[in-house]
Amino acid sequence: MIKLQFLLDCTTTALIAVLCFLMLLKKYEIKQDKLWLRILWVGCITALKMCTLLLRIPPLNLLSTLIVCISVISIYKCKLITGFIYSLVALMIALVSEALAILIISDFYNHTITVTLGTTDLMWHRHIWNWILQIFLSRIVALIIRKNDNMRVKWNEIIFYVLLLLFQIILFASISAKIQDYMSGQLLIFMMSGFMILDIYIMYILHKISLSRENEQKINLMQQQEQLQLQMYQELQKKYNETCGIAHDINRHIKSLKSLILSNPNKQAENYLKDLSNETARLCQSIKNQNPMLEIILNTVLEKCEKNNILLEMNVEDFPMQFISDIDITTIFSNLFDNAVDACMELSKSQRKIHFVLKKQIGLIVIRITNSCKDTDTNAFHFHHSTKANHSGIGLSNVKKSVKKYDGVLSIQQEKNQFCVSVTFNENM
Prior knowledge:
single chain, 429 residues, alpha+beta, Heat Shock Protein 90, 2 domains, 5-stranded mixed beta sheet
């Protein structure tokens, strides 16, 4: 009997691991680097969990089941906090399935819980019901997960949910221990159903909170895009006003120049003509591009770099990139250049350098901005982090969203004194 019980429990543990893996299979990508080591690690954790079954210590079994779920979900490319949530969900599926299986068998045969647990003939029944319920519940959860994006919850909310689950488990175990000798478990079935409804409602609330945070981030993105767009148009308006002013005065300059040449054809007239030409040239765009918005951005960046003694090197091929909207052109290039300029401003004048590349290569459009920066921890970077004062840290995150909209790829390389951002698009968009 003990050997059979152990084998059935081991089968249940293996099923938990498999169902936990299948639950997220169509939601997230699998981490391909060192995949066999990850699979071996999951196998070792699952084997250790099976060994703990021999000890018959409920808290240890609970903890080891959670560790198995976490190890399985760590194979996927999902955020740490999201993976922890799904591990808790998988743990609850296992606990609810096991408890419901015992209660259903007890109620069906009109046995007390103690009799059901102690009857060898019902051992297979309990485990089969447990397996059926696990498969059923995990399928439902998998369908719900696939329809929703990543959850955006905070650790304090997760801690609250964990404490609530622990309270439910302790309460259920306490009541079960008191009535298992003389009741079949109908009360516990109702209690378990109530707990499930409460847990589902809490998960629904967490999902709503997640959507609210996502919408808030989208609003921040829109506000930043609008601000950047406004700055670009203001710069364009400034250039236009300066041009109008020069055009208004151009006739007077020409008349004065003619008078000087007629009265005294000498160096003074030539210098005046040279100054007038320089003033006119200052209003002309130094960089020409078929994309009007990109042309404004590049010329604005060039002027900013000249004012701040930043060496700006450009290798730019001229093509329109019409498949990208003006607002996304602004979001991508303005954010990246602003970050590069801000990073250079923290250095001495001799160290300030930005290198910009825009070219077509083997069917791809390649954008690369490399800038010098302070010696920083290369492992500390993430998209929502900012090292600048009064910055929200959503700049690169907004760039990532805009790039993803056109099926592009954003990659970042950070060394001790250099920061490089590369964006690639398919040329045939």
